Automatic annotation (TrEMBL):
Pfam families: ThiS (PF02597). Keywords: Nucleotide-binding. It comes from the Bacteria. The keyword Nucleotide-binding applies. InterPro entries: Beta-grasp_dom_sf, MOCS2A, Mopterin_synth/thiamin_S_b, ThiS/MoaD-like. The lineage of its organism: Bacteria, Pseudomonadati, Bacteroidota, Cytophagia, Cytophagales. This is Molybdopterin synthase sulfur carrier subunit. PANTHER family: MOLYBDOPTERIN SYNTHASE SULFUR CARRIER SUBUNIT.
Amino acid sequence: MKIHAFGVAKEITGAAMIDFPVDETFVKVKDLKNLLYRQYPDLINLPSLAISVNLFYASEDTLVNKHDEVALIPPVSGG
């Protein structure tokens, strides 16, 4: 599964695009997050981490297919 990483998530993963292995055809967002936390433990320290699937914010129970467009969206600040 290819995952886009933005902001501090990009810094933590070390790349703007990561190729993340997922065994199942479909996985829930909450399970994907847990897999990501194991691979990149510093993601756990973020106050929030949104996941988008096919350009829409996803809930924890959203199913993700390995061919979907997935992105990690950390908290942002602006002024």
